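[retry 2/3] NAD-dependent epimerase/dehydratase: previous attempt timed out, resubmitting with same input.
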Amino acid sequence: MNKTLIIGASGQIGKMATQQLLDSGQDVVALVRDKAKLSDIAQNRLHIIEGDLEQDFSHAFEGCDQVIFSAGSGGNTGADKTMLIDLWAACKAVDYAKNTDISHFVMVSSIGADDPAQGSDKMKPYLVAKHMADEHLIQSGVNYTILRPGSLINDVAKGRFQTTKPAKKEKMIITREDVASALTYTVGNPALNNTIFELFNGEKTLKDALA
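[retry 2/3] NAD-dependent epimerase/dehydratase: success.
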């Protein structure tokens, strides 16, 4: 039985992915700063570990086969936290994964991470952090899938996707619940090893969109 470590399991997307994996009968290790944030999820397959991403959190990887990194510093923090969480913690997670022979690492990145220079001045620190974390994962030798979702919205899941960037900016969106579904579909799926996808709501099923 696979055991998936979700880093950032108390965030909106991370929590949805945690519940989806549990509902499918999988074991989940949830790494969070405060376990109380998962108090509404009661499952015997859920193992909660408290940890600080700015410190050593290598212990969370013990016994896990695959990893989802969905942690983020949040939109209300400064560039310092962006560097510490979105870059440094992500890079540490990749190193821990390599040292513990994790079979698959799924990274939640962002559209624009491929070319941060094209981003706005406000977004550049975030995009640079995501870019460097993605590159560290690509070069690590760990099997990876990098998802770069569009602008996140809180609507009900559409269940339809596309990986081609829409022509209009207002269409470059995806629900958080759909991102969570993409994560749970992707993790442990060897057909998607060493691939990078941009992801938006569209017209295709997830299987067809990521084919």
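[retry 2/3] NAD-dependent epimerase/dehydratase: The CA atoms of residues 104 and 189 lie 8 Å apart.
[retry 2/3] clearing retry counter.
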